[in-house]
Amino acid sequence: MGKVVMYSSVSVDGFIADKNDQPGPLFDWLTSGDVPLDDSGAVKVSQTSYDYTRAYWDQIGVTIAGRHVFDLTDGWDGKPPGGIDHVVVVTHRPPPEGWDAGAPFHFVDGVEAAIAKAQELAGDRLVEVAAGDVGGQVLAAGLVDEVRMDVVPVVFGSGKRYFGPVDAQHLLEDPEVVIQGNRVLHLRYRVRR
């Protein structure tokens, strides 16, 4: 089975969105360079960020997100973001009315079920868990192997926390990766077991 990685861009003070669910400048680093990160050409980063991020994106088999993120993005119009094969949505509600049942989205109840489904779908590829409430629940359940952060030089002061509702201490190993890009610091930590 592939590793479970909790990931997001994050403000220096630990937020993935402001109090109105807006990312503000958290994704500015994705347009701060001259190297296209995907086929759209809209996402351009520095060569350093490209080398790190493209290699990571190419390893992801499944992304896990909460229903709140799914609803905010309108379900990515039924197409998983970033060329990922599948999205597992953690929710207590059924798919939206009129949802295309053939879209590669899987609706499950609870983070343990989400991890099980995602690992089944991903095989030996990475399972990415969106940071925030669901990511925090997966971390608290002891199911995260690695934490990746793209730290952006902005202070929000309040908003949606990277680790969501986590209220207990979780030790991480020393950073395995520390890479400076344009307007971003890429960090990677293994979760201490």
SSE topology string? EEEEHEHEEHEHEEEE
Q: Which bin fits the share of residues in helices?
A: 10-25%
Q: Average pLDDT value?
A: 95
Poorly predicted regions: none
Strand order, main sheet: write it out: 7-6-5-8-1-9-12-11
Assembly of the depicted chains: single chain
Global Rg: 16 Å
Q: So what's the CATH class?
A: Alpha Beta
In CATH, the homologous superfamily goes by the name: Dihydrofolate Reductase, subunit A
General form: globular
Tally the beta strands. Answer: 12
Q: Structural class of the secondary elements?
A: alpha/beta
CATH architecture: 3-Layer(aba) Sandwich
Work out the helix count: 4
How much of the sequence lies in strands comes to: 25-35%
User: Major sheet, described briefly?
Assistant: 8 strands, mixed
CATH fold-level label: Dihydrofolate Reductase, subunit A
How many discrete structural domains?
1
What distance lies between the first and last C-alpha atoms, to the nearest angstrom?
17 Å
Describe it for me?
The chain has helices at 47-59, 67-72, 111-122, 133-140; strands at residues 4-11, 15-17, 35-36, 44-45, 60-66, 86-90, 105-108, 126-130, 146-152, 160-161, 177-181, 184-190. The protein contains four helices and twelve strands. An eight-stranded mixed sheet has the order 7-6-5-8-1-9-12-11, sandwiched between helices. A two-stranded antiparallel ribbon has the order 2-10. Strands 3-4 form a two-stranded antiparallel ribbon. The chain is α/β, with parallel strands linked by helices and 193 residues long. It has one domain (4-190): Dihydrofolate Reductase, subunit A (3-Layer(aba) Sandwich). The mean pLDDT is 95. This is Dihydrofolate reductase. Pfam families: RibD_C. Residues 114-176 form the Bacterial bifunctional deaminase-reductase C-terminal domain. One of its GO terms (molecular function) is 5-amino-6-(5-phosphoribosylamino)uracil reductase activity. It comes from Amycolatopsis methanolica 239.
